[in-house]
Write a structure and sequence with these properties.
single chain, mainly alpha, rod-shaped
């Protein structure tokens, strides 16, 4: 009787340990897969010098906002839109990727609007330096980098499909592994 009780207890402890190990393995494995998909979606931005296109674009947005604020004032909605877009690139995470496309579009709209409004201002016409800055920066900011290009979107969609379709993927979702939002 005592032997059966010990055997049953040992089997129960082993079963619990197997379930805990399975849960830890599922969470770790799927979290690693998610990280790889995110790296695929963000790796496109790194250029040979170690800077990212997004950092350069954010700097261009901020520079255009500074030049435009000299002529329109810091409270102008187009200047504010550019500042907000530049700020959206700071601390880029997987949670901010969907907002990034909105920031790109807002910056492009603001740049297009500024490229029409600023050249006509007398203060801009009086400053050859600002004319050069505005010509260059509005052209660059009006054509934002494609942050959601197809290879990165494909990696995220593949991960999300696997997470939803596989039994272990659904278990991973229960354990807190989140799909990649686009």
């Amino acid at each position: 009787m005592k032997q059966r009780l010990l055997t049953a207890l040992s089997v129960a402890v082993c079963a619990v340990l197997v379930l805990v190990a399975l849960a830890i393995g599922v969470r770790t494995g799927w979290s690693d897969e998610r990280d790889r998909a995110l790296q695929a979606s963000q790796g496109w931005a790194v250029d040979e010098g170690g800077w990212t296109l997004l950092n350069d674009y954010a700097a261009d947005c901020a520079n255009l906002a500074v030049v435009a604020s000299r002529h329109l004032g810091a409270e102008d909605e187009r200047v504010t839109a550019l500042r907000n877009a530049a700020g959206a690139f700071d601390g880029l995470t997987d949670e901010t990727l969907p907002a990034l496309q909105e920031a790109n579009e807002a910056a492009a709209r603001a740049a297009a609007s500024l490229s029409e409004a600023l050249p006509a201002l007398e203060s801009v016409q009086a400053s050859a330096r600002d004319q050069v800055y505005l010509r260059t920066l509005t052209r660059v900011v009006a054509a934002p980098p494609d942050v959601l290009h197809s290879a990165s979107r494909d990696a995220a969609e593949r991960f999300n499909e696997q997470l939803d379709s596989a039994l272990l993927g659904r278990l991973a979702k229960l354990m807190g592994v989140r799909p990649i939002e686009w």
